[in-house]
Amino acid sequence: MTSLPENSYKSRILTGDRLSMGTLFRVFRFRIVVTWTLTTLETAMLALFPLLIGRSIDGLLGDDYTAFTQFVGAMVVLTVVATLRRVYDTRAYGSMRVALGQAQANRAGEEAVSVTNARLLMGRELVDFLEKEAPLSITGVIQVIVALVVLFSFHGLLALAAGAAAAAMLGIYGLSARRFFTLNSDLNEQSEAQVSALESRDLSRVTAHLIGLRRHEVRLSDTESVVYALIFTALLTMLGFNLWFAATQTGATPGEIFSIVTYSYEFIQMSVILPMALQNLTRLAEITERINKEQPAT
Question: Measuring CA to CA, which residue among 6, 2, 12 is closest to residue 100?
Answer without folding.
Answer: 12
